[in-house]
Amino acid sequence: MPQKKKDFLKRTVEHVEITKHNVVPLVEAMAQMSYSARDLHRAAEIADRMVRDKECGIILCLAGSLVNAGLKKIFVDLIRHNMVDAVVSTGANIVDQDFFEGLGFRHYIADERLKLGVDDGTLRELNIDRIYDTLIDEDELRACDDTIQKIADKLEHRPYSSREFIREMGAYLDQKHPKIDGIVLEAYRKDVPIFCPAFSDCSAGFGLVAHQHARGDEPKVSLDSAKDFYELTQLKIKNPVTGLFMLGGGVPKNFAQDIVVAADVLGHDVAMHKYAVQVTVADVRDGALSGSTLKEAHSWGKVDQTYEQMVYGEATVVLPLIAGYVYHKEGWKKRAGKKWSRLLEPAGAAARG
């Protein structure tokens, strides 16, 4: 009997919750170990120090497929409890995965056999997309694309930074789906700006392509990546003490690190990022940015050397430990969020009260 879509999309990915698991004793025990365990402990201590430094603005960088893997609730809790002041991400995490779930859709657990790739032809026939061991309904992704187009169609037709457009996505969710936890929605409510420098490289791109095609020669919504860079640089200028918490590398890592240099180009003598933690599985030897060390970034004038730590491990394993440690150390209870969106949109912020 031919298989149907429902035969594959049965078990949903459930997001781990750091609030329910106190990992502090475990992470502290790692300080007496070696290799990656000791690195992880030091990274957790630096992340905790970032949160306790009231002058520090914390930038969370997300690369790779993280939300579909069950990490969404961690990011939501970091934003909700004032441990993140800005997010720099790939578009996939923000649109294809988080906004997608914000619309009420889900990711599904793939059976072990599917990881071998032998059934990918069947999945294609059923409009099911695979990310290693998770599955997504392509028809639902198309609905997500259509929603992006609808949001664009209703906006003033002009260039936007990705932050501006994602804020409109948050407003949409707050109105249409206010009870579904998500990064875009929580960031909207907490005035935490989200930047996706390569915003069109995801479902947002399909929706915006459809919008621009429908508009023809008429004025249309477009994305301005230089405006993204300028806005995030302005945040560095206005809040010189900053820390980076990076998962993966790529564009989000480089974009966030480069704002120190950009501020200098604009004539502002700002300090390098005071704190930096990166979780990655990338190798330094191939010359790619994802694996380049934070010590190397110091040679470019981007990251200070005192509080930096690389952790070579996969994010679904490492993040719950570091984030759980910081959450249960409770330094966030004495920290107020920076509300950086209001620095970029003072008039809108005043109207919101």
Walkthrough of the structure:
Strand 4 and strand 5 (134-137) form a beta hairpin. This protein has a single domain (18-110, 133-332), classed as 3-Layer(aba) Sandwich (Deoxyhypusine Synthase). The chain contains 16 helices and eleven strands. It is an alpha/beta fold. Helix 3 crosses helix 14 (315-329), helix 7 crosses helix 10 and helix 8 (162-176) crosses helix 9.
Topology:
Blueprint: H1 5-8, H2 24-29, H3 35-52, E1 57-62, H4 67-80, E2 86-89, H5 91-102, E3 108-109, H6 120-125, E4 128-131, E5 134-137, H7 138-154, E6 159-160, H8 162-176, H9 183-190, E7 194-195, H10 203-215, E8 222-223, H11 225-238, E9 242-247, H12 250-265, E10 273-280, H13 294-299, E11 303-312, H14 315-329, H15 340-344, H16 346-352
Parallel strand pairs: 1-2, 1-9, 2-7, 6-8, 9-10, 10-11
Antiparallel strand pairs: 3-5, 4-5
